[in-house]
Amino acid sequence: MRSLRKNITRPFLILLAYAVGILYSFPLIYMVLTSFKKESEVTPPSFIFTPTLENYRTVLTPEFQSFIWNSVTVTVFTILISVVLGLMAAYTIVFSRMQPQKQNNLFFWFVTTNLLPPVGVVVPIYLILKNLQMLDSKLTLILLYSGGNIPLVVWMVYSFLKEIPKEILEAASIDGSSRTTAFFKVILPLIKSGVASSALLVFVFTWNEFFFAVSFTSVQSSTIPVYMASFMTQQGLFWAKMSAISTIAVLPPIILGWLSQKAFVRGMTMGAVKG
């Protein structure tokens, strides 16, 4: 009886998992389908249409290549700066000689900086950038995104570092290793999954960021989300073309997420959810 119940339950759970997966990914699937429609076929919604590559030919222009390059440049440098500085900050908080209460306060300060909504600082930041003549600059986006993502890295890596006994550093010091050598040869291999998941989150948040990009760039440094918004015109919304751009834009996060899913899941479950 138990074996029969197991044979019936297992296929049902598998089908239920597939159904939930399809339902969860339906917006993404419909977006990809829409990218192959003509603008006249987008509304009303329909799954019966003649596929066309017209939208991709329209959006894949030399101008689009500059937007892609801007996004790649800003994202890569933001990841490097955020991970390096965030890792250094978390390491200092955990392994410094500060009192536990001061360590907790400093960590709490890092984490709570992300609670400030971007719209609350857009005006003063704009005035500062205008006075410094740094509007429409990739460096500006890199600095803003790095400042916003460093607390995320600190929050992610902090829990991993807290789980490492300080005796490991003492043992490395007795063996003649400096703090720098101990960090790269002992600490970093132990928290590599946390660093990888942090870098992936920084990539996703930076790649998709729109508010600062559209507020502080215009021509030379605009990213993919800004290019996508250019198809929202007074003549109407070009849904098919926006879907084509969105399909191209989501490919890098999906591919990286698929390749690093084991490290990402391990990093989220072992580090970030612990106090």
Automatic annotation (TrEMBL):
Domain of life of the source: Bacteria
Annotated Pfam families: BPD_transp_1
Protein name per its UniProtKB record: Carbohydrate ABC transporter permease
GO BP of this protein: transmembrane transport
ABC transmembrane type-1 domain segment(s): 68-260
InterPro entries registered for this protein in UniProt: BP-dep_ABC_trans_perm, MetI-like, MetI-like_sf
GO CC term (a single one): plasma membrane
Membrane topology: Multi-pass membrane protein
Key words of the record: Cell membrane, Membrane, Transmembrane, Transmembrane helix, Transport
Membrane-spanning parts: 12-33, 67-94, 106-129, 141-161, 182-204, 238-259
